[in-house]
Write a structure and sequence with these properties.
The chain is mainly beta. It has four domains: 73 residues, no CATH class; 214 residues, Jelly Rolls; 35 residues, no CATH class; 212 residues, Jelly Rolls (Sandwich), CATH 2.60.120.200. The chain contains six helices and 35 strands. β10 and β11 form a beta hairpin. The protein is elongated, with a radius of gyration of 35 Å. The relative contact order is 0.09. Pfam families: Laminin_G_3, TSP3_bac.
Amino acid sequence: LHQNDSFLTDLQVLTLRTTDFQPADLIGKRGHLENYFTGNIGEILVYDRALTESEIRLVEQYLGSKWGIALNQEPEEETEAGLIGYWNFDEGEGTVIHDLSGNDRDGVLSGTTESDVWQDGILGPGVRMDGLDDTVYIGYGGVVTKTFALWFDPGFPLEVNGTAVRLFNQWGSGPAIWLNDFNSSISGEILGIRKETGEMTYVTGANANLSDGWNHLALVWDGGLTRYRMYLNGTEADVNASAEGHFPFWEGYNHLYFSPDPTGAGDVRYAGKIDEVRIYDYSLSAAEILAQYQYPTSDADADGLTVTQEWNLGTDEDDDDSDDDGYSDGLEVSLGTDPLDPTSTSAQFGLQVHLPFDGADGNLTADASGNNRPATLVGFESNQTTWIAGKIGNAIQFDGGNDWGSIPYTLDDNFTIALWLKSTDARGTGNWEYENTLLTGPNNTYHVCLHTGKFSVWGAANTQPGANKLRQTSSAAINTGSWVHLAFSRAQATGSYGNYYTYINGAKDAGPVYKNVKYNTGALLYMGKAITGAEYYLNGALDDLRIYDRVLSDAEVKALHDLGQ
């Protein structure tokens, strides 16, 4: 329904459920009275029974979808024993604060501007009061309060001589939670709960475990002590009482206000954030309070992200890989990819060896993958030029005579090898002899080389004789004397079969090539020479050698090439 000249944009879904509904014969007119409806009606559905909550939700979803209406449905309630009020402020829009305890004590934002009031909370969205006229009102009445807990970020220094602020109060001049110097007759107070008749339980600045940002406050009734225990950030605080005594048992109060009007006694309105307000009808244990405090910073799924971070990102706090792409949410965030998009990948995913060849440490070249797999160099003489200007930083120059290196890594079922090559050598015969070896396995199972001036890969067949062995050579020559980017990958198929791909300068040159070739290449890979034959040493330069334990996509291979542009 709507009541102006705009039809679809202001159309609303309205639901009425009753067990004693008497439909009228008229639509748009109130019985015999001359009260007429002005506006448009989109659709009316009438049932001869009371629909269940789930049925109503389905009907509303149908109408919303049919008429293009965004539904503001209440969030799912949380069932927890003794929880009689829970407002998590996760709406992120509008002015209604839903009570998720199941007791329907929804709150309302007053005086707020939607674009300003909704901000990041400790878990998901929260609200920030502007200190002018913003207020949160909750119609909460006639219930026992044995535990009252919330998160708050005041946005200003909490200090013993600071200006007094009422974070919260109950109806008019009722019980209130105060911050800073709120009682001139008391020295050092920084936070407390006070009744209008003077009874107060407070903590001094010296005993307050408070931070500069978000703080967790819990008040827990202890009948034996006849007062509320105060917990700040998970730890029970040493509290004091006013001359009138401790704040008494909180029972049967009505209406809660956050950021209420100043009292006129020198205090100011609260201008900060609040989130995760909970009220229980029983006294939570110290362990339960500590768990509430620790929950936002916990990491239940061990993905390296706290619950707060997961909520803000929208990832699943109980699933370390929300998009099921094989990489944890924490790793994706650290590498700048989207943990909710399985197609969003990083050049660091699966990177097992990365030799940028920007310098040596003794006879080792550093591994930048973080896996500590440096190449050990052999044959490089002190009087020869080893390090030259590369495509990305420096590069390593092989003399074609006796220079080579070993890499402590084993290729698995799926892999990608990528590197930059610069050479003019044209050695090679039709029998795969006299090639320039780039990378090979100790058992001669895989061989990546420059053969007759072209990019070639070789793989021994799993069945002998090797009719199905891998022999793949590019059509284009790559011994141009300029830097050329090469990549070679294997994707596991079934059994010992795999699909092989080759790339030149970021573009696919061949593949998939389906072959019965599958080998574990042993504990080492050789760089710059084959296993047999002194003629098989590389004459040329290598740069930015990378080995992955996964198959890079065409786009990812191109991205590696583009790093050198």
